Amino acid sequence: MNDLVIVLIGVMGSVLTFYVSTQLKQGAVRASALLSLIVAMFFYIFPLILNSYLTTHIPLVFIGTSFIGMVSTKTNVKYFQLVLAGFLFSLIYMHKGGVFSGYGGALGTLAGIALLTSFGFSALFSNVSMIKNFFFKI
């Protein structure tokens, strides 16, 4: 159950940040900071509302996925890519173990990895016919 909540928060963080940034015209930094502050303050004020695992990790996952939502609109990003990136971020975050221990910028690094991977999947599956044509010509 904890894993499902973490994944849902990850998806919400990326999508909400992008939405507030673009549709509400707040800019990427302001959208990320505002939403992250709201989530962090909520769990700071009400630490016993959920179990300790979720209280500790929800703010971190939300902040990390808000970095994904800061993506530029010039990249022609789709909401599906943001959902996929938030999902990938959450999966990596839950299974990272001690890989990033003592490493500054771990959330941003995970966000970058997740976003670039989602862009790669989108490019790969949008060009399936091109890939098939390439292999069948050989």
Please explain how this structure is put together.
The chain has 138 residues and is mainly α. It has one domain (2-137). The protein has six helices and no strands. The chain has helices spanning 2-22, 28-45, 52-69, 79-95, 106-126, 128-137. α3 packs across α5 (106-126). The longest helix is centred in the N-terminal third of the chain and has 21 residues, at 2-22. The radius of gyration is 17 Å and the shape is globular.
Write a concise synopsis of the structure shown.
This protein has 138 residues and is mainly alpha-helical.
Provide key terms for this protein.
mainly alpha, 138 residues, globular
Helicity, as a percent range = over 70%
* Inertia-based shape: globular
Order of helices and strands: HHHHHH
Radius of gyration: 17 Å
Number of separate structural domains: 1
Give the SSE layout.
Blueprint: H1 2-22, H2 28-45, H3 52-69, H4 79-95, H5 106-126, H6 128-137
Helix pairs in contact: 1-2, 1-3, 1-4, 2-3, 3-4, 3-5, 4-5
